[in-house]
Amino acid sequence: MRNSRLLLTLTVGLAVSSLVLTAPSSLASREPTKTQVMDWINKQAKDPVVSDYFDFQLVNLDDDPELEIVAKHNGSVHIGNFYVLDQKPDRTYALIAEEKWNPPRLQLDRWDFTREVNHSEIDKYDDAELRLLAEKRVFETVHHTGGSGICIYEANLWYLDKGRLVKAWEGLLRETVSIPGGQLFRTVGSYQILHDDTEKPLLYHWQTQQELNPDTGEPLPGKPDTSLQIYRWENGVFVPLNVEKPSGQ
How far from each other are the two terminal CA atoms of the chain, in whole angstroms? Predict the structure, then answer.
C-alpha cells in the first residue's frame, strides 16, 4: 500500500510538472507564425508575397481588444507591399487592406515624437499610449520608391475606420533626382503635428530643394528653395490650408 501511494504521488507530481513546462509553449503557439501570416495574405491579396523579404507585427490599430497584424513585403529596392489583417472569431486573420507601399521598416508611431515614455516618478506627463488625432489612432508608414536616377521616401499617415484603411495624409521626406547631362537635385522634407486644437489638429510640412555637385554630392553655391504647406484635420483627413514660404525666404 505504501509503495502504491508513493507511485501515485510521483505520477501526479510528474503530470503537474509536465503541465507547468508545456504551458508557456502552448501560450506562445497562439501567436501566428510567419508562414501562417503569409498564407493568409496570399489567399486574398492582389499582390501576394513571393519572397522571404517579409516582416509582420501584432499591434492594436483600433478600439477592439483583439490585435491586428501589419505586414510588409519588399519585392525589390523600390517595389513592395503593405498589408493589414484583422482577427476573425476562429483566431485566424483576414486581409482588410493592401497598399503598394514599400516600407523600409515597421515603425508605426514615429510621427508622435512628443510622446513621453519616461518613468512617471520623474515625468508626470508620461504617456504610454499613442496620442489620438481627433479621436483616431493614426499611424505612419514610410514608402520607399523611385526608378532610374530617382530615389524617393514618402510618409503616409493612416488609420482604420470600421475595418477600412483611411489615408489621412502623405508627404515627401526625401527625393534625389539625377538628370541626364550632369545635374543632381535633392529635396528633403519633414513634418510636425500640433495638437493644440484636439478636434482639428494642424500639420506643418516643409520641403527644401537644392542642386548638388553630381560628382561629390556636395551642395552647389546658391540659396536652397524652401516651401511650407499647412494642413488642418477636416472630415477625417488633413486638407491644405495655404501655400507660402517661411519668413525670410
Answer: 97
Q: Give the separation between CA 50 and CA 28, rounded to whole angstroms.
A: 27
Torsions phi, psi of 28, nearest 5?
-65, -30
Amino acid (1-letter code) at residue 131: R
- 88 lies in the same domain as 114: no
Please say whether the beta carbons of 105 and 140 come within 8 A: no
Number of H helices, E strands in the chain: 2, 11
Last residue of a domain, one of 102, 136, 155: 102
- Model confidence at 10: pLDDT above 90: no
Q: Do residues 84 and 128 share a domain? A: no
Segment 193-213, tens digit of pLDDT:
998 898 999 999 999 999 999
Q: Are residues 94 and 130 in the same domain?
A: no
Q: What angle do CA 43, 35, 54 make, to 5 degrees?
A: 90
Q: Are residues 117 and 170 in the same domain?
A: yes
Rounded to whole angstroms, the maximal C-alpha distance in the chain is 99
